[in-house]
């Protein structure tokens, strides 16, 4: 179970930047026509024309542009460890 948790944590931290870029949160900004662009559009409509600082879209774009901070990596790793552990118990 400990090995599964470690592998899940490491895998999640390694995969997170790839997933962010794949859905459109890139270092150059939000990719046109991407899932991220549709999220940004919906957030802008809901917020009266802009994306609020600290919103999910803003946080994900910051992570896509500048990388995931250590605190964020810890959260992603914990989530990955939890999922891997649960899946390991179910299998």
UniProtKB/TrEMBL annotation:
InterPro entries: IFI6/IFI27-like (IPR009311), IFI6/IFI27-like_sf (IPR038213). Pfam families: Ifi-6-16. Keywords: Membrane, Transmembrane, Transmembrane helix. One of its GO terms (cellular component) is mitochondrial membrane. The lineage of its organism: Eukaryota, Metazoa, Chordata, Craniata, Vertebrata. It is a multi-pass membrane protein. Gene3D superfamilies: 6.10.110.10. It is found in: Membrane. Belongs to the IFI6/IFI27 family. GO terms for biological process: intrinsic apoptotic signaling pathway; release of cytochrome c from mitochondria. This is Interferon alpha-inducible protein 27-like protein 2A.
């Amino acid at each position: 179970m400990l090995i599964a948790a470690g592998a899940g944590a490491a895998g999640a931290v390694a995969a997170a930047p790839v997933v962010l870029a794949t859905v459109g949160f890139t270092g150059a900004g939000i990719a046109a026509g991407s899932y991220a662009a549709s999220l940004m559009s919906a957030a802008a409509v809901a917020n009266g024309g802009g994306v609020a600082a600290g919103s999910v879209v803003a946080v994900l774009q910051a992570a896509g542009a500048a990388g995931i901070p250590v605190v964020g990596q810890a959260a992603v790793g914990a989530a990955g460890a939890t999922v891997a552990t649960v899946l390991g118990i179910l299998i």
